Amino acid sequence: MTAAQVPLLWDQGIHLPTYGLWLDPTQVRPRAVISHAHSDHVANHAFAYCTAETERLVTHRRAMTGRLHALPYRERVDVGGAWLSLWPAGHVLGSAQTLIETDVGRLLYTGDLKTRTGLTAQPAEPVPADVLVLESTFGRPRYRFPDSAEVVEAVTRWCRRTLADGATPVLFGYALGKGQEILSALWTEGFAIALHPTLFGVTEVYRECGQVFPPYVRMGDDTSPNSVLIMPPTSRTADLPSSIDAVRTAMLTGWAMDPSCRQRRGVDAVFPLSDHADFDELCCYAEHVGATMTYTVLGFDDELALHLRRRGVRAAPLRQPQQLSLL
Ligand SMILES: [Zn+2]
User: What would the CATH number be for the domain defined by 148-271?
Assistant: First the structure.
C-alpha cells in the first residue's frame, strides 16, 4: 500500500475513504466513530463505534436507529485493512481518542481532550502516532487554567459565603460531564446538593456505569433554599424551584479566562473549570505524541498550529474540504 492510497479528508469530521470510515462526523454517515456523547459529536449513523459508556449516554439522550458497536478501551478491531482502537480522552465519561493503525502509519484523533486528571473520566493517555489530529478549543495562550484544586476551593468558598448571606448558590455546568465533575468536587464539603432534572438523569446514567457520587437529590419545588443547585447553562430563571427565593449564580467554564465572560454570561461569578485541555496541555500533548505531522481542528486551530511550529512541531490546521495523505 502506498501513501496515496490512504487519504485523510476533513469533511465535517475526519473521513478515511480507504476504509469507508468517518471520525466524529456531524452528518449521518454509513460507518463512523462517536468519540463521546456531547451532542455536537453525535449523529444517527447507520453503524458507529464508541465505548460502552458513550453508547449508554447517547441512547439516554436521543433515539438512535443505527447500530452502536461498543468497544472497550485499547481493544483493536479490523476495519478492512486497518486496525481501529479507542483510548481514554479524559474529557467526559466514556470519551475516547481514536487510533487507526494502517500499513503505512498510525493516525491518532484526540476528539475532545483533557489531560489533567478529572474526577469522573479515565485520564487521557498520549498514544504514539505518525499523524495526530488535535482538537484546539483552547489553543490560544490566554487559556492557561489555574490548578483545578484551587478553582474548586474558590467555588466552595463562594458557595459557603452565598449560603451565609441567606442566598442559594446556583452553579451552571453542562448536563453531561461538567455537572458531574462539580458534584464530585463538592463531595467533602457536606453541602445539600440538588440537580436540575436533566442533569439528574445524566448523573443517574453515570452511576449505572459505576461512578460514585456524594448524596444528591432531583431539584423540585420542595428543594431547600440551603442547598447548592447544579444546573445546565441553558436553564432559565423559570426552572428554579418555587421554594427558592434569593439566588447567586456562577458559571464554571474554561471561557472564564476571558475578562468579559461574567458579563456576557450574565452571572454573578465565573470560575475557570474546564473539561478540555488548556493551551499548555495541548502543546505538551502534541510533543508527547511525537507525530511527524500534527493537524489542528476546531477552535483556535490556526493559532495553535502556529505556536506548535514555534516549538518545533510540524503542524497545520485541517480545514474543509481538504485532502491530505496519512503519511
Ligand atoms: Zn465534548
Answer: 3.40.50.10710
Per-residue confidence (pLDDT) for residue 3, from 0 to 100: 43
Pairing mode of beta strands 322-325, 7-10: antiparallel
> How would you classify the pairing of strands 14-16 and 7-10?
antiparallel
Q: CB under 8 Å to 259, separation ≥6 — which residues?
A: none
Closest CA to 39 of 21, 20, 60: 60
Domain locations along the chain: 3-142+276-325, 148-271
Are 200 and 175 in contact by the 8 Å Cβ rule? The answer is no
- Of 232, 205, 227, nearest to 216 by C-alpha is 227
Mean pLDDT, range 150-159, rounded to an integer? 97
Distance from Cα 177 to the centre of ligand 1, integer Å: 8
pTM over 0.90: yes
Ligand 1 centroid distance, CA of 267 (Å): 23
Q: Distance (Å, rounded) from C-alpha 149 to C-alpha 42?
A: 31
Length of the chain, in residues: 327
Q: Could you give the angle at the alpha carbon of 185 between the alpha carbons of 255 and 188, nearest 5°?
A: 150
Cα 103 to averaged position of ligand 1 atoms, centre (Å):
31
Cβ(272)–Cβ(146) below 8 Å: yes
Predicted local confidence at residue 319, as pLDDT: 76
Residue 111 has pLDDT above 80, yes or no: yes
Ligand 1 geometric centre to CA of 113 (Å): 8
Residue-by-residue DSSP string for 184-234: HHTGGGT-EEEE-HHHHHHHHHHHHTT------EE--TT--TTEEEEE-TT
Question: Does pLDDT of 321 surpass 80?
Answer: no
Structure confidence by residue, pLDDT tens digits, 182-194? 999 998 888 999 9
**What separation, in Å, do the N-terminal and C-terminal C-alpha atoms of the chain show?**
11
According to CATH, the topology of domain 3-142+276-325 is Metallo-beta-lactamase; Chain A (3.60.15)
